[in-house]
Write a structure and sequence with these properties.
The complex is a heterodimer. Chain A is mainly α. Chain A has 2 domains: about 1-120 and about 185-215, no CATH class; about 125-175. Chain A has 8 helices and no strands. Chain A has helices at about 1-40, 45-50, 60-85, 95-115, 125-150, 155-160, 160-170, 185-215. In chain A, helix 1 (about 1-40) packs across helix 3 (about 60-85) and helix 4 runs antiparallel to helix 8 (about 185-215). The longest helix of chain A is centred in the first third of the chain and has 41 residues, at about 1-40. Chain A is globular, with a radius of gyration of 19 Å. Chain B is mainly α. Chain B has a domain at about 30-60. Chain B has 3 helices and no strands. The longest helix of chain B is centred in the middle third of the chain and has 24 residues, at about 15-40. The chains are: A mainly alpha, B mainly alpha.
């Protein structure tokens, strides 16, 4: 049982990760490289990276990006598989799109509403505070959607709105007076393309996981 | 039982099975996501740098 779900998650995650990786290399990485020119002018990022190991520019860096995308894909696929198992609602090729859209809302739309996609060189508040808010928002949004979708009573469904809205009422950590050398046009392009990439990733992931779980055998046979 | 033949029949699993397997998947998944997107050692950060930015998680 565990092995079957694990195998399906690995297959679906690698597939969605490969699609996201390809889109990223095509549409997103050029924007990151363009922003790094401004980041290095300010010297902020260069100091941090000067002493530590980093992949060589070019093919090596692209290879690590692709590897990271594949691993990220499998990680999200495992979390989606967990959601399927916890809720007891089936995932299929047909409803995989819906599962994917839910994942996109929980892991991309909700957190980026507070913390917009960040290019290198853009100033931001304390990293740990942002990471904590990010995870808090993901957990709260996921719980809220679960209430709305799974509860039968209208009153309980309505309660689901609270955890969805709460992180944004509390507010994400931001700097008082952020000034960035990175041009706004670059940042706007980046925000649009990363969100498109994540939407694509989650839809492919939902459909692939529906497909892969059924490919690895139905419970009627096992 | 009214289950779709072509679908992964979650309904036929015991609650215990679903929760146990789900917990294992969640732990593994969060562990992987943490390593790729959140862990701070420089080598991990630099290797996954572009993906962290693209996945819209806080990077540095």
């Amino acid at each position: 049982m565990i092995m079957r779900v694990l195998l399906a998650a690995i297959i679906a995650g690698m597939l969605a990760g490969a699609v996201a990786g390809a889109f990223q290399i095509w549409r997103v990485t050029p924007l990151i490289l363009a922003a790094e020119v401004y980041e290095n002018q300010t010297g902020a990022g260069a100091i941090q990276q000067a002493e530590a190991w980093a992949p060589e520019e070019g093919i090596e860096r692209t290879a690590y990006t692709l590897l990271a995308s594949l691993l990220m894909g499998v990680g999200f696929a495992l979390v989606l598989a967990a959601a399927v198992l916890f809720t007891g609602r089936a995932i299929t090729v047909q409803n995989g799109v819906l599962w994917g859209i839910m994942g996109f809302i929980v892991f991309s739309l909700a957190p980026t509403t507070g913390l917009a996609p960040e290019l290198p060189g853009m100033p931001a508040a304390d990293l740990l505070a942002r990471q904590t808010w990010w995870w808090g928002t993901v957990i709260a949004t996921g719980s809220g959607i679960a209430l709305i979708v799974l509860q039968e009573q209208l009153a309980l469904k309505a309660l689901g709105v609270i955890p969805i809205v709460a992180p944004h009422v509390i507010g994400a950590p931001h700097l008082q007076d952020p000034e960035s050398a990175v041009p706004a046009v670059l940042a706007a392009n980046f925000a649009a393309n990363t969100l498109t990439m994540m939407a694509l990733f989650w839809i492919v992931l939902g459909v692939s996981l529906g497909w892969a779980l059924n490919r690895t055998g139905t419970s009627a046979e096992s | 039982m009214l289950t779709n033949e072509s679908s992964f029949s979650i309904a036929s699993l015991s609650v215990q099975d679903r929760m146990t397997t789900g917990a294992v998947m969640l732990l593994l998944g969060v562990f992987m996501l943490y390593g790729v997107a959140f862990a701070q050692p420089d080598a991990l950060h630099n290797a996954a740098h572009d993906t962290r930015h693209a996945v819209t998680v806080p990077c540095h």
